[in-house]
Structure prediction request, 137 residues.
Amino acid sequence: MENSLQINQAINLTDQLITCLDEAERHLSSARTWGFLDVLGGGLLVDLIKHSKLNNAKYSMDRVNYLMQELQRTLGNISVPNDYRMQIGGFATFADFFFDSGIVDVYMTAKIMSSLNEVRRLKDRCYDLKSKLQGMR
Prediction:
């Protein structure tokens, strides 16, 4: 990458990525809290709020995936963090509402925590990449 314009564009994309990851982290943290309440016997309303938070996190992560693709195009041969998908699938969501048992609630909370940890790791990698890019200026 010989062009300072490309480096600045990559830094800008990395900043956008970090912002989206912060959003996803906030939504997942909130969903985790609601998940803990659900384990303690939350019921349908808690499920609805928890899944609303998860949907918001998914929208943020969809934006993250788009920005990572843009960053890869901008950087070319420099390594960019891999594509990320949330760890919570459709069947788990269905089971959480339909079966609404302690076991399913614990499973969902574990999946939320796993996704939250992945977001945090990805954010750390973005900070590392940004630091390397700033060193290339």
